[in-house]
Every structure is written in structure tokens, then in C-alpha cells.
Amino acid sequence: MDAFSRNAFSDLVVNRQSFRYRIVSGKHDSPIHIKKDDDVLLVSKDSISRKSNLSYLDNWLSGEDEVYIVVDEAHHATARSYHDVLKYIKDKKTIKGVKILGLTATPFRTSKQERGLLGEIFGDDIVYKTDLDTLIKRRISSTPICEDCNTEIAIGCEIGLKALKSIQRLDVIPDDIARHIADNKKRNHVIVATYLENYKKYAQTIVFALNRVHAFTLKALFEEMGKKYNIKAGVIV
Question: Which helix (H) or strand (E) holds 185?
Fold first, then answer.
């Protein structure tokens, strides 16, 4: 909401002095409090996608000429929860026009079948895109400093070419290989030891784990091996 309110005013909105916002999520407001005069709803899909909650949109949608739907993490829009919300709004006979905009930082995380389904949702395909180099040059993204750390552990040698291409395309590691990596004690030890050897340089650090189990495994290992450095670790799922 802060980002929206900072950027919502321009020469295109000369007849508006302010907007009325409502955030609907598990830790903010409830769908039951949605009002007709709310201009902008920022809603989590889990808070609105249940059938019992979708009806709370009825009064807000009634009598509107156009409704604009912005879908964040749009590469997930083929999921049932997104589909139910979009269909509910588009099926409303009282609305003259529904426009949908999808936003995603990872449009490549889709299979061939999902790309077809996304094309049905976002009929204009990709209307704007940029790349990492451009974002770095504009100082929107940080410049990565890459350091290789060879664990000397061979993983996934038997997965086959098809599975390898799927990993490269979807950026998702199959569950069985992920478990094998997460459970590898030697590899986990190398990760923590590499940090501890450079803890003054790295200071506060975010470690992206493979899955929930891997995250808690690394947390325990960081605290066990880092006792003499007074290293504290937490997990965010």
C-alpha cells in the first residue's frame, strides 16, 4: 500500500486528490469489512478465494464501469485459488469492463501447458519486460558478487537429460533430489564452515535453503558450529 500510495499520483489522475485503501489479509483487515467506497483493495488470495469470502466483493463491484485487477506473482495465476477470484469478478454482469495486469519476476517458471493457460488469462501476453542487467544499471537491483564454493559432492548424476532440462527451465529441483541434497551432512557442513571462515566479512547473512527441512537443519548446524562466535540463526518459511 505504501508503494502504491507513493506512486499513484501523476498527470493521468488529475481529478483525484486521494484514494481510499483497504488491505485484506490474515494479519490486516477481513473481507467482511470491504466497503463500496474503497478505491483500492490490496488482497491476499488466501483471504478472498474461499467461496464464503468472494461474496463480500459484490457490493464493492456493483455499478462499476471498469475494474482493474493486478495479479502479483502472475506465473502462479493458473492455480485454482487465482482462477476462482478472477472468474468470480469477470462473471459479474454489472461490470462493463474487466482489465487484468500480471506482474512477475520469474516468468520462466512455467511449463509448456501452464504457458498456454497463462495466455488465456493474460490475453495480451507480455506487454513489458526488462532484464537483470538493466535493473542493475538503474540501481534497482544490487550488483551480485559471486563466489564459488565447490563441495566436491556429485548430485543428480542419474537424473537424465529430460529432468535436467526441466530443472533448467522451471528452476525447480525434483523432491527426491532436493531431499538428497538437504540430507547431505558433508555439504551442509561446507556451507556453514564457509560462512564461519568469513563471518566478520559476511556479517548478517540470508541463506536460501532448498526446503523447510533443509532450513531447520542448517539453523541447528549454524548454532552448533557457531557457538564460539556467538552465532544466532533463525528460520523464515
Answer: helix 185-197
* Identity of the amino acid at 203: A
CA nearest to 54, candidates 12, 76, 21, 83: 83
Residue 200 CB partners (closer than 8 Å, separation 6+): none
90: DSSP letter: H
Backbone angles phi and psi of 29, in degrees to 5: -95, 170
User: Residue 12's pLDDT is what?
Assistant: 65
> Range with the lowest mean pLDDT among 12-16, 33-37, 150-154, 195-199?
12-16
Run of H or E including 161: helix 161-170
Please give the single-letter amino acid code of residue 180.
H
Domain positions in the chain are 2-137, 161-229
pLDDT tens figures, 161-180: 777 776 776 667 777 778 88
Mean pLDDT of 221-227: 94
How many Cβ atoms sit within 10 Å of the Cβ of residue 29?
16
How large is the greatest C-alpha to C-alpha distance in the chain, in angstroms? 66
Which residues, 6+ apart, have CB-to-CB distance to 64 below 8 Å? 94, 95, 96
Q: Over the stretch 198-210, which tens digit does the pLDDT of each residue have?
A: 999 999 999 999 8
Phi then psi for residue 235, to 5 deg, are -120, 130
Task: Tell me the residue type at 70.
Answer: V
Number of H helices, E strands in the chain: 12, 4
Mean residue pLDDT of the chain comes to 86
How many angstroms separate the CA atoms of 58 and 63, rounded? 10
Please say whether the beta carbons of 94 and 62 come within 8 A: yes
